[in-house]
Amino acid sequence: MLEVAPLTVCGIRTAVHVAGEGPDSVVFVHGNPGPLDDWEEMAVELAGVARVVAMDLPGFGRAERPRDFPYSVKAYGEFLGALLDAVGVAGRVHLVAHDFGGAWATAWAAAHRERVASVTLISAPVVPGFVWHWAARLWYTPVVNELFQLVSTRGLIKAVMRRENPRPLPEEFLARVAGYADLAQKRRVLRIYRQARDPAATFGPVAETLRAIDPPACVVWGGSDPYANPAHVDATCALFTRVERHVIEGAGHWPFVDEPNRVRAIVCDFVRRQLGFGRRGR
Questions:
Q1: For the whole model, what pTM was predicted?
Q2: Which helix (H) or strand (E) holds 138?
Q3: Residue 137: which pLDDT band, with cuts at 50, 70 and 90?
Q4: At 43, which CATH number?
Q5: How far is CA 15 from CA 8, 58, 175, in A?
């Protein structure tokens, strides 16, 4: 397990993992359902060549689930910025993000364009033409969303994840996701998706920011992702002029769980090269 420390940012208690040294930082941003533990193996490896930072964002993992947090893309970007300031990240940043984390990380990048050294997106919706999956449509539908979350016990959450993923998910991973899924988290997830109901309005500014910054990019996607349709890979890659494209055939929404060694090698080798190091073992 990653070592984490408590941290209060913008009045919200959360947890952060900081390790390694270097002028550049690798910042890992989880999505829904998170938490920072998703990044354990990558964070450990990259801490040997850079400073790494991973966190639980409001509503997820060990973080508080405050009612008065906006739960918008903009709010998450601002929270991320305050957290990075709090842990002393001041130089160039290599962003590694999964799922909604891609939009949240880009919201931070929009205000710090000169500091974005590279971007790695893993099954991350960041294009205005994105089509929401069935669960998201339930989450943003009035009345239905509340009923769905109320009946979503931990056992049901694990059962749905098992059914939807093309490969068996480790019990440890399922237990971690279900363990953090208290009623407060489920209600905050509803707020996230209600505000993101219109992908064009939500992800249009995200896409424009990434086009404008145009950093070196690595796009990794599960070839059988039931939540972030791999049909969006080409549009995502088209946001960048320098991009590496990796579709992991047979993997689902968590390719770093389905193919941990392969995805770790792809991401870490990409980031290492952006940092000025060669591939692993070279």
A1: 0.95
A2: helix 134-139
A3: confident
A4: 3.40.50.1820
A5: 8, 10, 19
